[in-house]
Specification:
This protein is an all-alpha fold. Helix content is about 75%, strand content about 0%. One of its GO terms (molecular function) is olfactory receptor activity. Pfam families: 7tm_4.
């Protein structure tokens, strides 16, 4: 495995940075799940989907970052083939599931803002559970297909990959034809990435149109503030995924693409708790109940996330 950071004298700094982001991502998302599970006012469709998103982020970071930190600490930077395939499956599962989940979340917001009278009738518990099951099933099937297709290939050459096993660098190492793999990657990118991105954009176009009709300027400000935060994450995540996966293997560049991978693999899972939940008053109140921090401000809670697990 090739290092993400090619400067040995900065390995300690890079390790501390990755460790900090890992703790923030895992602890922040874990607190969100606990808050949603144990606080009844948060038992709504929106927070149900946020809990699923938090679980996906924990799955993604736990599958990738521990091995990355091990590589930063030790001179021997290798991974077994079986572990590589397990890492590939887990990462593909989390990334594919998150793409579909973001669309489900956009649909929930669309129903809440644009169809408020039908919201309670449509977004029932059974519907939310069914949507979540579909989301995870699509991600699992897509991940299984890519992993099984990868198992049929033979690898040779330098066998250098980045810190984790991802589809583009593995296909670049294949000694046999990876045409079928590239076709399936392209199909998955069209339907999972671009398709869900278009659906999400369509839902938020309707949401924006409805927000503009709100008479209260304060109401417009709050609604746009919430939507803009979500759209920032969507844009960052989708842009990185489409950039990485829509191209053929021949255009893959280890040096150029590894920084893009940092965006959706490390930064986004660490930012999601802040963007989706820590800015919400109900979640902050719940955190104060879960944690013995009744008089602690939101800033203090953010610092607490940097503490030991």
């Amino acid at each position: 495995m090739q290092e993400l950071f090619d400067h040995p004298y900065l390995q300690g700094l890079f390790f501390d940075t990755v460790l900090c982001l890992f703790v923030v991502a895992v602890k922040g998302n874990s607190l969100i799940i606990l808050a949603i599970v144990f606080h009844l006012p948060l038992h709504t469709p929106m927070y149900f989907f946020i809990a699923n998103l938090a679980l996906i982020d924990i799955l993604c970071t736990s599958a990738i970052l521990p091995k990355m930190m091990q590589n930063l600490m030790h001179g021997k930077k290798t991974i077994s083939f079986d572990s590589c395939m397990a890492q590939l499956f887990t990462f593909s599962l989390s990334s594919g599931t998150e793409l579909v989940l973001l669309t489900a979340m956009a649909f929930d917001w669309y129903m809440a803002i644009c169809r408020p009278l039908s919201y309670v009738i449509v977004m029932t518990n059974s519907v939310c559970i069914a949507l979540a099951a579909i989301v995870w099933a699509v991600g699992a099937i897509s991940s299984l297909v890519h992993t099984l297709l990868m198992l049929r290939l033979h690898f040779c050459g330098s066998n250098f990959i980045w810190h984790f096993c991802e589809i583009p660098p593995l296909l670049a190492l294949s000694c046999t034809s990876a045409y079928l793999n590239e076709v399936m990657v392209f199909i998955a990118d069209v339907f999972l990435a671009m398709g869900n991105f278009l659906l999400t954009g369509m839902f938020f176009a309707f949401i924006s149109s409805s927000i503009l009709k709100i008479q209260s300027s304060e109401g417009k400000r709050r609604a746009f503030s919430t939507c803009s935060s979500h759209l920032v994450v969507v844009d960052l995540y989708y842009s990185a995924i489409i950039y990485t996966y829509i191209r053929l293997t021949s255009s893959y560049s280890l040096n150029k693409d590894k920084l893009v991978a940092v965006l959706y693999m490390i930064v986004t899972p660490a930012l999601n708790p802040l963007i989706y939940s820590l800015r919400n008053k109900e979640v902050k109140v719940t955190f104060r109940k879960i944690l013995p921090l009744e008089r602690v401000s939101l800033k203090r809670i953010g610092l607490t996330l940097l503490g030991p697990l």
